[in-house]
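User: I've been trying to design a sequence by hand for this structure and keep getting stuck. Would you show me what you'd pick, starting by listing the structure so we're on the same page?

Assistant: Good idea, let's start from the same input. This is the structure you sent:
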C-alpha cells in the first residue's frame, strides 16, 4: 500500500515521519522532544504515561494499556529513542527530514533502527483500541534512552528499579534486524560485547637503534594472537552452513594508539578490540585466554575492559515456551517465515533477559536490506505498514496468552 502525495499518505506513515524528524541523535540526543511526542501519543490513545528518571537527564517513558486481568504478568514492548550519528555527505537526502521518494522509500536515521518499531507498536495499539479490543494481559510500551552507547544510562539501570519490577513484565519484544529475503529474522539470544584495550609497555629510546623489549613488539604479538583467533572463528563460520554469524565469536581491531615522533621509541602503545562473545562460550575460560595471550607477549602487557557483559541468556525458540508458541503461532497464521537466530551485536534485550524475563528481538522488515547504522538508512512505507498489521496480530496473541502455572 504505497501512498504518493502527502494528501493521500497513510496517517501511520505521517506519524512515523514526524517521529523520524526528532533529532535524537547521539552524542547529544534531543530526548525532551521525543518525550513530548510520546506524551502526546499517550494522550491521543488514552494510555497512561509514566516517566522514570534513571540518571540525571535520562528518562524512560512508559505508556500503559491496562489488561482486563492486571494481576497477570504483562507484555513489554521496548524500543530505544536514540539513533546513531550520520555522515551527512554520504546521504542522498537529509537524514532528519524523513524524505519519501516517488517509490515510497523513507530515508532517515532511525528508519530501521528503530523508530519504525516504536511507531508500529503505537499504531497497533491504536488500531486494537479503536476496534474495541481488550486483552487479559496489560501491555507496557517502554521508550528508553542511551541504547546506542550501551544502555548504561537506560535499560541497564531501569531493570534494577522498583518501577520496572512494578511493571511485572512476563515477556518482552525488542528490536531485531531487517531481512532481505521473504523471511523475517527473530532473535532469541545475543552475543556479549567485550571491548578491551590492551596496553603494552617497554623500553624507550632512539629509533635508530635495535632496542630490546619494545612496547610495539609485544603489542604486535598480542595482535597476532587475537587476529589468529579471529581467523579461526571466521573459518569455523564459513565451514558450517548451519552456523549463523551470532553463533561464533567475532573480534575486530578497532583502535591503535601510541607514539609521539618518528624517531622516538615509545614506552607504551595500546590496541583496542571489539569482541562479540558467542552465548555458549565459557566466559571465565575466555578471559583466562585473553590473559594468556597478554602474558605470552612478554612483561608489561595488560588489558582493561571498556565494556563487558557476562550474563547472556536464551529465550527458548520452541513450543515448550508458551511465549514462543504464541509468537510463532501468530506468525504462522499470517504465513510469515521465521528465521530464529542469535543477535550478532547487542541490544537492550540482554538486560531484560538477564533479570529473567524472556525476550525476542523482532523488527518486521522483510524484503529489506540491513541498513542500520549505514548511509541512506531507509524503509519502504509498505513494509512499515505491514509491520503495523503484524504487530496488531502479535499483540492480540501475546496479550491473550492464558495464565501459566505459577502466574497470578
Ligand atoms: C555494546 S553497546 C552498543 C550497542 C550496539 N548495538 C547495535 C544494535 O548496534 C552494538 O552492538 O555495538
Ligand atoms: Zn537499535
Ligand atoms: Zn543501533
Amino acid at each position: 500500500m504505497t501512498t504518493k502525495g502527502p494528501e493521500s499518505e497513510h496517517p501511520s506513515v505521517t506519524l512515523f515521519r514526524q517521529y523520524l524528524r526528532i533529532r535524537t541523535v547521539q552524542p547529544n540526543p534531543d530526548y525532551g522532544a521525543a518525550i513530548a511526542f510520546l506524551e502526546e501519543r499517550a494522550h491521543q490513545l488514552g494510555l497512561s504515561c509514566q516517566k522514570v528518571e534513571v540518571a540525571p537527564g535520562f528518562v524512560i517513558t512508559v505508556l500503559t494499556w491496562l489488561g482486563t486481568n492486571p494481576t497477570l504478568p504483562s507484555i513489554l514492548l521496548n524500543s530505544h529513542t536514540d539513533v546513531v550519528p550520520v555522515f551527512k555527505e554520504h546521504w542522498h537526502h537529509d537524514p532528519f527530514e524523513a524524505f519519501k521518494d516517488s517509490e515510497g522509500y523513507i530515508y532517515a536515521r532511525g528508519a530501521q533502527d528503530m523508530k519504525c518499531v516504536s511507531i508500529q507498536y503505537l499504531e497497533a495499539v491504536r488500531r486494537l483500541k479503536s476496534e474495541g479490543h481488550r486483552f487479559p494481559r496489560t501491555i507496557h510500551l517502554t521508550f528508553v534512552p542511551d541504547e546506542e552507547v550501551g544502555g548504561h544510562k537506560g535499560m541497564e539501570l531501569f531493570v534494577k528499579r522498583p518501577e520496572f519490577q512494578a511493571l511485572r513484565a512476563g515477556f518482552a519484544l525488542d528490536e531485531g534486524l531487517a531481512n532481505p529475503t521473504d523471511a523475517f529474522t527473530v532473535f532469541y539470544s545475543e552475543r556479549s560485547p567485550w571491548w578491551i584495550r590492551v596496553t603494552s609497555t617497554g623500553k624507550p629510546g632512539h629509533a635508530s637503534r635495535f632496542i630490546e623489549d619494545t612496547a610495539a613488539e609485544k603489542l604486535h604479538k598480542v595482535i597476532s594472537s587475537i587476529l589468529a583467533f579471529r581467523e579461526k572463528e571466521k573459518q569455523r563460520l564459513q565451514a558450517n552452513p548451519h552456523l549463523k554469524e551470532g553463533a561464533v565469536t567475532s573480534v575486530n581491531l578497532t583502535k591503535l594508539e601510541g607514539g609521539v615522533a618518528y624517531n622516538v621509541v615509545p614506552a607504551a602503545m595500546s590496541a583496542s578490540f571489539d569482541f562479540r562473545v558467542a552465548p555458549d562460550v565459557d566466559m571465565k575460560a575466555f578471559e583466562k585466554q585473553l590473559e594468556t595471550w597478554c602474558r605470552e607477549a612478554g612483561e608489561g602487557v595488560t588489558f582493561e575492559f571498556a565494556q563487558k557483559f557476562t550474563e547472556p541468556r536464551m529465550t527458548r525458540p520452541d513450543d515448550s515456551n508458551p511465549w514462543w508458541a504464541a509468537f510463532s503461532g501468530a506468525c504462522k497464521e499470517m504465513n510469515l517465515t521465521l528465521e530464529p537466530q542469535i543477535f550478532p551485536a547487542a541490544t537492550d534485550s540482554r538486560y531484560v533477559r538477564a533479570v529473567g524475563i524472556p525476550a525476542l528481538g523482532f523488527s518486521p522488515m522483510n524484503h529489506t536490506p540491513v541498513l542500520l547504522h549505514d548511509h541512506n538508512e531507509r524503509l519502504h512505507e509498505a513494509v512499515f505498514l505491514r509491520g503495523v498489521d503484524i504487530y496488531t496480530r502479535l499483540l492480540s496473541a501475546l496479550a491473550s496468552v492464558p495464565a501459566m502455572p505459577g502466574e497470578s
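That's my pick for every position. To get oriented when you compare it with your attempt: Residues 44 and 395 are 19 Å apart (CA to CA). DSSP finds ten helices and 17 strands in the chain.
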